[in-house]
Write a structure and sequence with these properties.
The chain is of the alpha/beta class. 34% of the residues lie in helices and 17% in strands. The chain has helices at 33-43, 74-83, 107-111, 113-119, 124-137, 145-148, 166-182, 207-219, 251-260, 277-287, and strands spanning 24-28, 48-53, 66-69, 88-92, 141-143, 157-159, 190-194, 197-201, 231-234, 264-268, 290-294. A six-stranded mixed sheet has the order 6-11-10-9-7-8, sandwiched between helices. It has a five-stranded parallel sheet with strand order 3-2-1-4-5. Strand 10, helix 10 and strand 11 (290-294) form a beta-alpha-beta unit.
C-alpha cells in the first residue's frame, strides 16, 4: 500500500458536466461500489480523489488519485483534502463498526474522543448522523452517491427474464411495510418474507449473515420452505439520510440469495445502488432468481 501523501492515477475525462470544478473526494470502504462511483463521476468530466480506508478499501483503487488513511486520522486527511481544493465528499463502500481503540486517532480525533465515544452508543443512524456532523465541521459538504452518480440507481421494474409471482409480490409488499414499521427502532434495512411469513429480519449482522441464517434455518428443518420460495426485501429505513449507507446490490447478493434458497430479490427503486447492472442481470439469469426494483407503497 502506498504511504506518500498523494498518488496520482488516471486524470478525469468525459462529458461537460462538472468540467473544471474542484475534484470530488470519495471516502472508500470495501467492495466494488467505490470504483463504480469514481468512474461515473469521471465520466461527467469531474476529477476524483479517493481516500482509501486501510483494512477495507481494495488496493486496485490505487489506479485513481488517492491517499490511504486510518479511520482515526480525520484531521490530517481533512487538511490534505482542503489543500487539494476538495469541498464535496462522498462516502461509499462497506465498513464494519470499528472499536474506538482501533481507530488510530490523530490529534483532531483525540480532542473529539468523548463525542466520538457517545456516537458509538446507539444504532447505525445515530452513528452515521454524528459522522455527518463531523464532516460538516471540517468544512466539507457530504454528497450522496446517488447525487453524484444517479445512473447507478436501481431502476423500477424487473431486471432480467425471471418475473416475481403474485405471491412473491405480496411478500414484497409485506416486507416493505415491515421495514417502515421497524424504522423508528433503527434496525436493519432488510427482511426475508416467504409465503406471507416474516422469516428473518436484518439486525446488526448485516444482509449476508441474515441470508446465511435463513439458509441454515431451512437446512436444519426449522423452516420447511422448499427452494425457490421467498424474497429478500431491502429498502432504506424511513427518515434515513440517503447520503450514507444506501443499500447496494450486485452479483454477490444474488449468489447468497440463491444459496439460501430464495426465489428472488426486491429492492426499492431509486433506493439502492447497482455498480454493474449487466453483471447483476447475468448473475440473476444464471441463478434463476428474479431481481426487481419496486416503488415503496408507503413513501
Amino acid at each position: 500500500m502506498a504511504t506518500s501523501p498523494l498518488q496520482t492515477g488516471e486524470g478525469g475525462t468525459g462529458g461537460a458536466i462538472g468540467r473544471g470544478a474542484a475534484p470530488i473526494g470519495i471516502v472508500a470502504g470495501s467492495g466494488a461500489f467505490p470504483a463504480a462511483v469514481a468512474e461515473a463521476v469521471k465520466a461527467q468530466g469531474r476529477d476524483v480523489v479517493l481516500f482509501l480506508i486501510r483494512g477495507f478499501a481494495d488496493p486496485a483503487l490505487e489506479r485513481f488519485e488517492h491517499r490511504w488513511f486510518r479511520l482515526g486520522s480525520l484531521g490530517s486527511v481533512s487538511a490534505l483534502a482542503r489543500a487539494r481544493g476538495i469541498r464535496e465528499v462522498v462516502m461509499v463502500g462497506g465498513l464494519t463498526r470499528p472499536r474506538v481503540r482501533d481507530l488510530g486517532l490523530d490529534w483532531t480525533m483525540v480532542r473529539l474522543l468523548p463525542r466520538i465515544a457517545r456516537l458509538f452508543r446507539g444504532g447505525d443512524n445515530h452513528l452515521l448522523s454524528g459522522v455527518l456532523g463531523l464532516v460538516a465541521e471540517q468544512g466539507f459538504t457530504l454528497r450522496g452517491a446517488h447525487e453524484v452518480a444517479p445512473n447507478l440507481l436501481l431502476p423500477e421494474g424487473v431486471l432480467g427474464a425471471h418475473v416475481p409471482s403474485d405471491q412473491a409480490r405480496q411478500d414484497i409488499t409485506r416486507g416493505l411495510k415491515l421495514i417502515h414499521a421497524l424504522g423508528p427502532f433503527d434496525v436493519g434495512q432488510g427482511v426475508i418474507v416467504v409465503d406471507g411469513l416474516v422469516a428473518t429480519v436484518e439486525a446488526a449482522e448485516g444482509t449476508d449473515q441474515m441470508l446465511a441464517r435463513y439458509g441454515e434455518l431451512r437446512r436444519s428443518g426449522r423452516l420447511r420452505f422448499p427452494a425457490g420460495r421467498g424474497v429478500l426485501v431491502k429498502a432504506p429505513k424511513p427518515g434515513q439520510d440517503r447520503r450514507v449507507d444506501l443499500p447496494s446490490l450486485g452479483p454477490a447478493t444474488v449468489a447468497r440469495a440463491a444459496e439460501a434458497g430464495l426465489a428472488g430479490i426486491a429492492f426499492e427503486a431509486g433506493g439502492a445502488m447497482v455498480p454493474d447492472t449487466q453483471a447483476l442481470v447475468a448473475a440473476a439469469e444464471s441463478a434463476g432468481l428474479f431481481v426487481v426494483g419496486v416503488k415503496d407503497p408507503l413513501s
